[in-house]
């Protein structure tokens, strides 16, 4: 995981949730953690990490992800075995 990905991961775990994280940076973190990513219908993105599956919606037309989605991403990462300690 490179420095930018670690910074994005810190932002994901930061409370209160931020609404300025670009989706492509979140996908980059998923890939760095070894997640499998596949396209779903429309803006859906399927992510599989350490036995845990989730479906997210890419934000559009904006690039940034909203606070509710950040909470979901954080919950998914925790269930997939990723913690603040890994940063």
Structural commentary:
- The chain has helices at about 5-15, 25-30, 65-80, and strands spanning about 20, 35-40, 45-50, 50-55, 65.
- By secondary structure, it is an alpha+beta fold.
- Helix 1 (about 5-15) crosses helix 2 (about 25-30).
- The longest helix is centred in the C-terminal third of the chain and has 13 residues, at about 65-80.
- The chain is globular, with a radius of gyration of 12 Å.
- The mean pLDDT is about 95.
What is the strand and helix layout of this fold?
Layout: H1 3-13, E1 21-22, H2 23-32, E2 36-39, E3 44-49, E4 52-57, E5 64-65, H3 67-79
What number is the mean pLDDT?
93
Shape: globular
How many individual helices?
3
Which segments are poorly predicted (pLDDT under 50) over 5 or more consecutive residues? none
Provide the β-strand percentage band.
Answer: 15-25%
Largest sheet: 3 strands, antiparallel
Compute the number of strand runs: 5
| SSE pattern | HEHEEEEH
**Rg result:** 12 Å
The chain-level structural class is alpha+beta
**Can you give the helix content as a percent range?**
25-40%
Q: Distance between the terminal alpha carbons, to the nearest Å? A: 9 Å
Strand order of the largest sheet: 2-3-4
Quick rundown:
With 87 residues, this protein is α+β, with helices and mostly antiparallel strands. Helix content is 39%, strand content 23%. It has helices at residues 3-13, 23-32, 67-79; strands spanning 21-22, 36-39, 44-49, 52-57, 64-65.
């Amino acid at each position: 995981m490179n420095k930018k990905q670690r910074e994005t991961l810190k932002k994901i775990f930061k409370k209160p949730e931020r609404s300025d994280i670009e989706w492509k940076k979140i996908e980059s973190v998923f890939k760095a953690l070894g997640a499998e990513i596949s396209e779903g219908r429309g803006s859906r993105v399927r992510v599989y990490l350490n036995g845990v599956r989730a479906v997210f919606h890419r934000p559009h037309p904006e690039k940034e992800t909203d606070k509710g989605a950040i909470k979901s991403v954080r919950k998914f990462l925790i269930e997939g075995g990723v913690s603040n300690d890994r940063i």
